[in-house]
Design goal:
heterodimer; A: 1175 residues; alpha+beta; Dna-directed Rna Polymerase Ii 140kd Polypeptide, Chain: B, domain 3; 6-stranded mixed β-sheet; 32 helices; 22% strand; B: 281 residues; Gyrase A, domain 2; RNA Polymerase Alpha Subunit, Chain A, domain 2; 2 domains; 4-stranded antiparallel β-sheet; 27% strand; flat
């Protein structure tokens, strides 16, 4: 790394691992010699953090862990394939040394090529296989067993550790964060999934209102849910999904080998008489059931084991005791290990203590009057990322694959007389598509089905939205909750205090998914799984007494005795909790323990929890020691000068990562001035009341996410406004990526002249929004004008529009495949059809000789872009069939053109002819349309203030300031009082000051340029300090009576444009079945006179109009109907039922009505029409 | 009209120029009505005829910018339009030709191929067929940037510059900004300053305020007073010299008035003197 050349600011990425990526940011207006102020410049740690980790570090870390570690573990665990027919046979899958995904692709596949060619960005999973052929052993090396989609920018990606220039050379945007997959040309994101944490006890009231302690155990093999319920009359039960009845808890404890009631009582209650009182009914129940020994208890439980579990062992007489023993060992609380001792007997002791603890927790909650755990607490949540999800899927697929191989091998080996020795490697290569297809299908459809865990999730993946750069970023930080959207519970949707700094408080959608879809904050890190074996050893070394050696009295008797948990498993007790916790923390800070291991104490439960599992959310904080933040001026200097990187401070123990649980055990100061420290024995202070500061925030603005970080002065806005902006920022048209003009997307919106905002935030620079902006700095006059500005409508200056304000480009893809068919025919491209005068017909005007529209040619609606023709017959004829000739060249063709069917003129931008993975030719046409703002186009500032353009006014009619400046946009002042977006006003003020000063100003959350300073700049430049100006009317030339708030505000053009929406029709297509007008703009549909409109017309008494609208303009139909029998369906005036012409009349009715009658008749219901003369 | 009938010299509008350079001119117009003063401003911005590129025919464009993008940029390049009316008699709307003809348009060419590592295409690369109507130049400036090319990229195109007015598109406006002010001390109380404590300390007086006497503290408010002195600063794009823009603006106004006069007289002849009043009011 040291040898790589230094990349300077321009065009480089802050996401690159290369720490010199954005020197301009590190220095940021600061010369190396300038004094450094820790309080002011502490935020520089944020870019440093993002430089080492990148914005989507969670995804990359998770995928890297999967691809480098987990995948090998999975293969290792399932490596053997044996045959039922040949006990000698054995096939072993081995992970080759130095195995590398993507190593064996014939040429370097770049992500961009995959996008353009509709291919999958994937690498080969290569293994060695060892098997025997008869007595001989064989080893085959580097056999491909499938393809694994590769996450962009992960360690197996070509973009990994590339400099911005190299990335650009590969056709990729250096600012692109990566973290997604490319499956068949579409970019797919695996959303972060939020789940309740596994293997932890959560006490909460169950559905019937009884307090229960629940644990979802999860191991590689099993997933099960165990609950302990404090039921009616103090009876306590164990609930488990493999037991069909609730088991009294004492029976469970007895089955687990705690036979004496006294011991049970001790394990549960310690010496606390209050607990014992609450527990005694449970004890009594057990003895009243006459169950005293372990054997009796096991038999009792065995009888309650769910039938489906026993079904597999038909014919063998069930030994219920053994059944129960196995169940207790493997299934109930599966995450608590049950080891076999030297005699081969299960050691149930840890499990018994665990069950007792669950009981104790419930009793504790009952005693405290129902104070339970909060399942919405972020510390009780785990975030599942791409790596974990893929790991589940891959494990399932791999197991099934080995099963398939086994079946294939069995097929061969069971043959009694084989002509040759069977080579098992053929079975491997024959099934190579299985894993590939399974992975591709899951990622492209988003359906995650893992039978083992009964997991059936839909919508796990989504297409990466490339509407704007922020929308793509926002998608990569999105967290979707497992909760049902329809349920009307507020708890999971509410903002949780523990989300502070971990999840963005602003960025969530409105409506249905509100609060269920969340976004990560800027500095959030999500842990990956790490090995806990070493940690376990360390814990014992630090003085934890093994749980197996502890009696019930020892557990709870002493106030200083704390239970020690590691990832939810009880390891033992420690008698000096504080010292122990500090020891671990100290070891973590000096780098002896993984930095992402968290340890915290709960005093009320007297437990110490150590976690090293994956999916915990955590964030870095500065450590404070004795009231002094360890990260000091010198460190900051080193950081600014590039001597040290972020990770150096973690290693040296100046910054550490805290997860949400450990945060509850810390005292975090937001600003340095808030740091408190009271030395021990400080007179007059009770230390239980004033905790000393343990940590210091790096920068308060990081509590917002990447999308909310775009808002200037968000701390001055009403909070929902920030939320609205988070939704709208994703719809803003702007620059998407540096490679945007090389991309061929279905729909792409680009802005012609995007500006970086005058009022920036630190986040804007950190995420690179200043390089790929989406909006323009508009000069805004806040005033009422013309009346076309009510209800948030905006007035635009025509001259500004002429000069390029809000101008955007819309690109659309039209593509088709040139297929070849089974009967030796294939699609073809035809040249333009010529009229009598030898000039191509209008429809084909854009076509060139190759039958494809030429680049740069203007097209209008109805023009053919690709003049494809397909054979009329594509299936293989059966040999010797009588009809027609079998000569493929004789099969006629029909036109299957690709036509441009959108309003407005457009230009052909690019044509791509290429092949996909299956060698099918594919033609893509990119159509470009440049649009200037028009009436009804939607705009928005960065404060959730959207509006449509109400009128476009000539420059000379616009009001102007005394220096002749006319506004680009006039905004109605009524937008302010109810919305309370003070941030927008301050943005204007700072923007104006910035313009006059020639600087960008900052509106960073909880900081930024101060209003006072801005006013000073305004005064210095001869303006009023309040940002208001005297404006003169452009129409009359008179000065406006009112002062006008006047200055630049960053405006975004949103993707909703009138051109894509406007629609009207008189006559047009009708649906075939009902003969009613079609629905929707895309089908040129009619506009519905709905129920409310109908009510209006009735209210007006305009019945003729109603009849016209609902019948004649829709589906009027003349039905011949017999007035005698009342049946419809007379034929040419002849009623077939009455066999007469006498009484047939013609009745006008809606076609839909006639259809209904016929459908009723088809189900043996006779609708009869009574006819009378109209009076 | 015969102006010699005006005996009172005081009723004549009066102009004094206070400053002038290449791009801008400041002057004071006095002895006229606010509506006239504003009309001059409006005419200068919107109705002065200039030349600007309106049609672009691309022969080759291998730059990264799209055709429409470049065409839009070309349109906004100011072309020297002094005396344009003598050279190009018609705007394209007035002209009788189908699309364009020499009497309403001028042709320009741009043929640039990049042989170096990279280069900028500026307005200086635009070659006009016409002697005078060509992109503006100035010594201090290397031309207006149109696009940047890297090695091998090429732009070659043919432009048609047409005569037009800014009512149609802002590219035809000769003015960049027209500052216009009267009554800098707000004697007439046309505006109400918003203040926290005191107008004087909170609202800075514009530069033009120096040219007028500061009102005395106890000066009575003359509610009959009318604005009389107008401060202009006309900054042009370079298409016209500032004074040309003003004169052109006045001409436009004059033409309009002449048009009204002619029509009114026509009606008067038709109906007789009394009829005019009936019709007009």
């Amino acid at each position: 790394m040291a040898d790589t050349p230094v990349q300077k600011g321009k065009g480089s990425s802050i996401f690159s691992l290369e720490s010199h990526g954005r020197d301009d940011l590190r220095y940021n207006g600061k010369k190396l010699t300038d004094p450094i102020n820790t309080v002011e410049d502490k935020w520089r740690l944020v870019p440093a953090f993002l430089q080492t980790k990148g914005l989507v570090k969670q995804h990359l870390d998770s995928f890297n862990y999967f691809i480098e570690t987990d995948i090998k573990k999975i293969i290792e665990a399932n490596k053997e394939v044996r045959s039922d027919f040949d006990p000698e046979f054995k096939l072993e899958v081995k992970v080759p040394m130095g195995e590398d995904l993507r190593a064996r692709t014939s040429y370097q596949l770049t992500p961009h090529a995959c996008r353009l060619r509709d291919m999958t960005y994937a690498g080969a999973i290569e293994v060695d296989i060892k098997y025997n052929k008869g007595k001989q052993g064989f080893i085959k090396r580097n056999i491909e067993i499938g393809k694994m989609p590769i996450m962009l920018k992960s360690s197996k990606c070509v973009l990994h550790e590339k400099s911005p220039d190299e990335i650009a050379a590969l056709g990729e945007c250096p600012l692109d964060p990566g973290g997604y997959f490319i499956i068949r040309g579409t970019e797919k994101v695996i959303l972060i999934q939020e789940q309740l944490s596994k293997n932890r006890i959560i006490v909460e009231p169950d559905r019937t209102g009884f307090i229960s302690a629940n644990v979802t155990s999860s191991t590689h093999e099993k997933k099960s849910k165990t609950g302990v319920v404090y039921g009616k009359a103090g009876k306590i039960f164990l609930k488990h999904n493999s037991l069909n009845a609730e088991i009294p808890i004492c029976i469970v404890l007895k089955a687990l080998g705690v036979e004496s009631d006294r011991e049970i009582a001790e394990l549960v209650c310690g010496s606390n008489m209050e607990y014992l009182e609450l527990f005694s009914p449970a004890l009594e129940e057990c003895s009243s059931m006459k169950i005293f020994t372990q054997k009796q208890a096991l038999d009792f439980i065995g009888a309650k084991v769910r039938v489906t579990q026993r079904g597999s062992r038909v014919g063998i007489k069930p030994n219920w005791g053994d059944e129960a023993r196995a169940l207790l060992a493997d299934t109930v609380l599966a995450h608590v290990p049950v080891e076999l001792d030297s005699q081969g007997v299960e050691n149930f002791r840890p499990k018994a203590i665990y069950v007792a603890l669950m009981v104790r927790r419930t009793i504790q909650a009952v005693r405290d009057g129902g104070i339970t755990d909060d399942r919405d607490f972020v510390g009780n949540k785990r975030l599942e990322l791409a790596g974990q999800l893929l790991s589940l899927l891959f494990e399932d697929l791999f197991k099934n694959w080995t099963l398939q191989i086994k079946r294939a091998i069995d097929q061969q080996l069971k043959k009694p007389n084989r002509t040759s020795q069977y080579d098992a490697s053929t079975a491997v290569s024959a099934t190579s598509k299985f894993i590939t297809d399974g992975l591709f299908r899951a990622i492209s459809s988003g359906n995650w089905n893992v039978k083992r865990f009964k997991m059936e999730r839909a919508g796990v993946t989504q297409v990466l939205s490339r509407l704007s750069y922020v929308s793509a970023l926002g998608m990569l930080t999105r967290i979707s909750s497992q909760f049902e959207k329809t349920r009307k519970v507020s708890g999971p949707r509410a903002l949780q205090t523990s989300q502070w700094g971990m999840l963005c408080p602003s960025d969530t959608p409105e409506g249905e998914a509100c609060g269920l879809i969340k976004n990560l904050a800027l500095m959030t890190h999500i842990t990956t799984d790490s090995d806990d074996k070493a940690l376990q050893r360390l814990v014992y070394m630090l003085g934890v007494e093994d749980i197996n050696l502890i009696s019930g009295t020892d557990l709870y008797s002493d106030k200083e005795t704390f239970l020690v948990f590691l990832n939810g498993v009880i390891l033992g007790v420690h008698r000096q909790a504080e010292k122990f916790v500090n020891d671990i923390r100290r070891l973590r800070r000096i780098g002896k323990v993984d930095p992402f291991v968290s340890v915290y104490r709960t005093v009320s439960q007297r437990t110490i929890n150590i976690s090293s599992d994956g999916g915990r959310v955590c964030r870095p904080l500065i450590i404070v020691n004795k009231g002094v933040p360890l990260f000091d001026e010198n460190d900051l200097k080193d950081l600014v000068h590039g001597i040290k990187k972020f990770d150096d401070f973690v290693i040296t123990g100046k910054i550490e990562y805290l997860d949400t649980n450990e945060e509850t055990d810390s005292d975090i100061a937001i600003y340095e001035k808030d740091v408190v420290y009271h030395p021990p024995n400080f007179p007059g202070i009770d230390f239980n009341d004033v905790p000393n500061t343990t940590h210091l925030e790096i920068a308060p603005f990081t509590l917002l996410g990447a999308v909310a970080g775009l808002i200037p002065y968000p701390h001055h806005n009403q909070s929902p406004r920030n939320t609205y902006q988070c939704a709208m920022g994703k719809q803003a048209i702007g620059a998407i990526a540096y490679n945007q003009l090389n991309r061929i997307d279905t729909l792409l919106y680009l802005m012609v002249y995007p500006h970086h905002p005058m009022v920036r935030t630190r986040t804007i620079e950190l995420i690179g929004y200043d390089k790929l902006p989406a909006g323009q700095n508009a000069t805004v006059a806040v005033m009422s004008y013309s009346g076309y500005d009510i209800e948030d409508a905006l007035v635009l200056n025509k001259a500004s529009v002429d000069r390029g304000f809000g101008r955007c480009v819309v690109m659309r893809k039209f593509s088709t495949m040139i297929k070849s068919y089974a009967n030796q025919t294939y699609d073809r491209l035809a040249d333009a059809q010529k009229g009598d005068d030898g000039i191509p017909i209008t429809k084909h005007a854009a076509l060139e000789d190759d039958g494809i529209a030429g680049v740069g040619i203007r097209i209008a609606s109805g023009n053919v872009l690709i003049n494809k023709q397909s054979p009329m017959e594509t299936s293989q004829r059966p040999p010797g069939s009588a009809v027609g000739s079998s000569d493929p060249s004789a099969i006629p063709f029909r036109n299957t053109p690709v036509t441009y069917k959108y309003p407005g003129e457009a230009v052909v931008d690019q044509v791509v002819m290429t092949t996909n993975e299956e060698d099918q030719t594919m033609i893509k046409c990119l159509i470009r349309q440049t649009r200037r703002p028009e009436l009804g186009d939607k705009f928005s500032s960065r404060h959730g203030q959207k509006g449509v353009c109400g009128i476009i006014v000539n420059q000379e009619d616009m009001p102007f300031a005394e220096n002749g400046v006319t506004p680009d946009v006039i905004m109605n002042p009524h937008g302010f009082p109810s919305r309370m977006t003070v941030g927008k006003m301050i943005e204007l003020l700072s923007g104006k000051a910035g313009v006059l000063d020639g600087n960008v100003q900052y509106g960073t959350a909880f900081g930024g340029s101060k209003v006072e300073d801005m006013s000073k700049i305004l005064i210095e430049n001869g303006y009023s300090y309040c940002g208001k100006d005297v404006l003169t009317s452009g129409i009359t030339g008179e000065m406006l009576q009112a002062y006008i708030f006047f200055g630049p505000i960053y405006y975004q053009k949103l993707k909703h444009m009138v051109m894509d929406k406007m629609h009207a029709r008189s006559r047009g297509p009708r649906a075939t079945l009902t003969r009613q007008p079609t629905e929707g703009r895309s089908r040129d549909g009619g506009l519905r006179v709905g129920e409310m409109e109908r009510d209006c017309l009735i209210g007006h008494g305009t019945s003729s109009l109603l009849i016209e609208r609902l019948l004649f303009s829709s589906d009027a139909y003349d039905v011949e109907c017999c007035s005698k029998c009342g049946l419809i369906g007379a034929y040419h005036g002849y009623c077939t039922f009455c066999e007469s012409r006498e009484s047939v009349v013609s009745v006008k009715m809606p076609y839909a009505c006639k259809l209904l009658f016929q459908e009723l008749m088809s189900m043996n219901i006779v609708p009869r029409v009574e006819v009378a003369t109209l009076e | 009209m015969n102006y010699s009938n005006f005996t009172q010299n005081a009723n004549k509008p009066f102009v004094s120029i206070t400053g002038q350079d290449q791009e801008s001119i400041s002057f004071i117009l006095s002895n006229t009505d606010l509506s006239v003063a504003n009309a001059i401003r409006r005419a200068m911005i919107a109705e002065v005829t200039t030349m600007a590129i309106d049609l672009v025919e691309f022969e080759n464009n291998t730059s990264v910018l799209t055709d429409e993008f470049i065409a839009h940029r070309l349109g906004l390049i100011p072309l020297f339009s002094s005396d344009v009316d003598t050279m190009i008699p018609f705007t394209s709307r007035e002209c009788s030709c189908q699309q364009y003809c020499p009497s309403c348009s001028v042709e320009l060419h741009l043929n640039v191929k990049c042989d170096q590592e990279s280069r900028s295409v500026t307005s200086n690369d635009l070659i006009s067929v016409h002697q005078q109507i060509k992109p503006i130049t100035s010594e201090s400036d290397s031309g207006i940037l149109i696009a940047k090319l890297v090695k091998g990229q090429e732009i070659s195109l043919r432009c048609i510059a047409k005569k037009g007015i800014a009512k149609e598109h802002a590219k035809w406006s000769p003015c960049a900004a027209v500052a216009f002010e009267y009554d800098p001390h707000n004697r007439l109380r046309h505006t109400t300053y918003w203040v926290e404590d005191d107008v004087k300390s909170e609202w800075p007086v514009s530069k033009n305020g120096e040219l007028e006497e500061e009102p005395a503290e106890d000066e009575p408010f003359d509610y009959l007073a009318k604005p009389n002195k107008f401060y202009y600063n006309v900054e042009t794009t370079g298409a016209l010299k500032p004074q040309e823009a003003i004169i052109a603006g006045l001409k436009v106004l004059q033409k309009k008035l002449a048009f009204i006069k002619k029509n009114v007289e026509g009606i008067a002849e038709e109906v007789g003197t009394g009829g005019v009043e009936e019709r007009m009011f």
